[in-house]
Write a structure and sequence with these properties.
With about 325 residues, the protein is an alpha/beta fold. It has helices spanning about 20-25, 45-50, 70-80, 100-110, 145-155, 170-175, 185-195, 215-220, 225-240, 245-270, 275-285, 285-295, 300-310; strands spanning about 5-10, 35-40, 60-65, 85-90, 95, 115-120, 120-125, 130-135, 145, 165, 200, 205-210. An 8-stranded mixed sheet has the order 3-2-1-4-10-6-11-9, with helices on both faces. A 4-stranded mixed sheet has the order 5-12-7-8.
């Protein structure tokens, strides 16, 4: 292969249930200059055997690394190994949608200096059916000011992991994913990368974020104290970069967002007592603060698809 225009990094672990559909979606968009790196930490060959079925359809490198025991270390390894100047992540249960490869190529050609390209994401169920669209509260097809990205992204991580395309050099300069952040490492890295240059948001849905009962967002938030700590670490780490005149209002909204996220996680486990307290936190924000929260958190776009999946028995 000539130098690829894009590298797709896929951390994998016991992915037999989903990874064939994921690779099918990539193969449908494959071009001669698209590089795919799968880092497999599985204890057996089940996932690798499926991946290798695509060796004649994708420019594919499969790397067995059972010593890399989480998605953060695998992803950091994959980005370091990537040959393209631009990289994206794809979890073993997420999807590319038709037109993504051509869209990314145009994004890069039109704004090669952008350190981060974002776009809306389809939230899909176990069968790949769309349950709704998850958008970013950023101006479309223009350079988003760094201060604006920071303010809005600090309130809530509105970036779904299968969609962003980032410059490899910006990722490496940011020291990659923090391996200690099992839940919020992606939120942290987007904040770090976005601080290094222009960010572009494109109004094209090109990836699917799959929700199911085994996903991190559904199963990883069972320890309330640890869950809250994961979010507070990121907020505290980046809040110091806010404009002094904006810090108080943004941080208030971000703290209320954390309370809402904790209440929603508890409700997903059958405990609804915290929902009232979280609603009270939002009420205390006042009209302007509540507007900020609703705009930046994308709360309805994130929650309604999960409710629909729950009601249909898909979770």
């Amino acid at each position: 292969m000539t130098t690829p225009f894009l590298t797709v990094v896929m951390p994998a672990h016991c992915g037999e249930r989903w990874i064939a559909a994921t690779l099918d979606s990539l193969a449908a968009e494959a071009t001669g200059d698209l590089e795919v790196i799968v880092i497999d930490g599985s204890p057996d060959s089940g996932t690798a055997d499926i991946v290798m079925r695509y060796a004649d359809r994708l420019s594919l490198e499969l790397i067995p690394r059972p010593d890399l025991d989480n998605w953060r270390t695998k992803t950091n390894f994959g980005v370091a190994r990537a040959r393209a100047s631009h990289v994206c992540m794809l979890c073993q249960d997420d999807l590319w949608l038709p037109g993504r490869a051509a869209a990314i190529r145009k994004w890069i050609e039109d704004a090669p200096d952008a350190v981060l390209h974002l776009a809306p994401t389809a939230i899909v169920d176990q069968a790949g059916r769309s349950l709704g669209i998850w958008r970013c509260p950023l101006p479309i097809d223009t350079e988003a000011p760094a201060a604006l990205v920071l303010e809005r992204l600090l309130v809530q991580n509105f970036v779904a992991s299968p969609t962003p395309v980032f410059r490899r050099d910006a990722w490496l300069a940011s020291n990659g994913l923090d391996i200690d952040l099992w839940y919020t490492a992606d939120w942290d890295i987007w904040l770090k990368v976005a601080s290094q240059g222009p960010v572009r948001y494109h109004d094209f849905v090109s990836a699917g974020f799959r929700i199911h009962g085994e996903s991190m967002t559904m199963s990883g938030s069972r320890d309330p104290a640890d869950f809250e700590s994961q979010m507070r670490i990121v907020l505290d780490r980046h809040a110091g970069r806010l404009s002094p005149t904006r810090t108080a209002s943004v941080v208030r909204a971000a703290r209320a967002s954390i309370k809402v996220n904790m209440a929603l996680a508890a409700a997903a486990g059958g405990s609804f007592g915290a929902l009232g307290k979280a609603a009270g936190q939002l009420f205390l924000l006042g009209p302007l603060g509540l507007h900020r929260y609703l705009r930046d958190s994308r709360i309805f776009e994130r929650v309604v698809p999960r409710v629909r999946a729950k009601m249909s028995g898909a979770l």
